[in-house]
Amino acid sequence: MTKFINLHTHKFSNLSDVIEVVNQYPWEFDASIPNYSIGIHPWFIDENRLEKDLEIIKEKLQFTECLALGECGLDKRIEIPLEMQILVFKKQLEIVKQMNKPIVLHCVAAFDEVIAIKKELKITNPMIIHGFSKNEQVAKSLLKNDFYLSFGKYLLRNPDLEKVFKFAPENQILLETDTIEESIYQVYEKAAAIKGISVDKMKAIVFTNFSRIFS
User: Fold this and answer.
1) What is the mean pLDDT of each run of 10 residues along the chain (215 residues)?
2) Which of helix, strand or coil describes residue 66?
3) How many separate helices (H) and strands (E) can be counted in the chain?
4) At what angle do helices 184-195 and 199-213 cross, to 10 degrees?
């Protein structure tokens, strides 16, 4: 049976028909979660424990339960200096490069920088912008540079995003809940309605993409 994929969530719900990639942090790791990503979010960079956090990420990425690095990335709307964020981001990318696992990205107002870093470090791992909420122009730039776009909260909240989702190629999209109260089923229903297809077809599209990215 084709399962629903929840590309990024902060709470494990243990639903039998959903594969969830649960976000984990090195400093509060829960070993009972079956499938997860792990990374240093730019909001939570702490220089005092940086080396320890990176060691934990390196260790966890070697397990099959650890599906991806992330969320990690860049955020220009926070206090932490961008130079520091870039340093920590690059350190994480250098680790995951060795393992070829996907990368779940948090990116706020720094898409050009993330694209440039992908090129500079010659990252071939699949890179997924989670919680995509921007316009068609930003989407086109990311898609052209082989990023995947994961939609969730803003698809339910922002009617302007429907146009972007409608045009996004089927082979470069994923769906998620992140921190919203709505279920992954509601996200799929909305996504299917926008694309003008059935929920089963939407499931098949996302499952195929997930299988390819996380193979």
Assistant:
1) 96 96 98 97 97 98 97 98 98 96 98 98 98 98 98 97 97 97 97 98 98 95
2) strand
3) 8, 8
4) 110
